[in-house]
Amino acid sequence: MGLFPLDEQLGVWDCHWSERLAKYCVWLSGLRNFNQAAEILGELAQVPISTKTVWRLTQRWGQRAQALEALERAAANATPDRQHIAPGEAPSDERLAVALDGGMVHIRGEGWKELKVGCVGQVVVRPTKDPATGDVVPLAHTVHQTYVAHLGGPEVFGQQLWTEAQRRRWSQAAETVALGDGAPWIWNLVGHHFYDSQQVVDWDHAKQHLALAASLIGGEGTPAAGRWLSEQATCLFEGHAAAVADCIVVAASHKRKVAKDLRQQAGYFRDNQRRMQYLELRENNFPIGSGMVESGCKQFRERFAGPGMRWSRSGAERLLPVRAAILSHRFDNLWAAAYRPALN
Fold it and tell me: Would you identify the CATH topology of the domain 95-201+289-298?
């Protein structure tokens, strides 16, 4: 029989569970799928528990985590002038970065939906080998990253990300930077919540658009495309995004079959030119890549978009704050708040 009955309804046997056992169950579910969580508990803790029970516990406590997140979000976004340093708050010499991206999750009955992921990290400068020159130079990196994720539109996601930024004392930071790809929703959100931060289009995303233009102009994989890409990448890195856009427009006038696609790429560089001052940004010790949030997206996908995974919307939404807390190294804090008797 083991320590606990296997498949009784939660209302009957939940009182027999210790807090620690429930905590480990939810924590494992944020790390591994429900089957694996049950197997690990069975193997290491000698607790015979069914996958269905693991799922039920995670749903129960995940719902509490959702409620806590909603309360924190409402409080952080209630003040009209949210960028103002509160009385008694001293300015910090810390430099902070926020980055935004998205990945796809399959929701039953809805298909593939975008999971928006945000990250806040501290900017530090470290001696680093420059991949372009091989020289060791001081380059900006982000450390101590924390994450949020939202399955839905940008409005709530923006509020979530601002809440996390405030938790990291964003308004007190000496300098701040926001990174993302060229998606309009990202810059609309940044303009609303992080309007006084330096804005940067991720260098790798910009290079991807440049590589696409090179293939359209010179042919995919051709020496001509490679030469064009190399020349224009140097121009782009030096902060001449408008010149890159002009070059693509000129090429479009000679490439009628792909002219529309080329003009679209030219628009990407023209619209984002003020966010593409890469040489100046590096000289001022700002990061030019959003790898921190891309890493976060990958880690969320590992739990939510594995082979054959299909989620109910509520099931995914209740597990998201658990996964975010684990990736942010704050699960203990989340659990302590969720388990408070006042929430019962």
Answer: Nucleotidyltransferase; domain 5 (3.30.420)
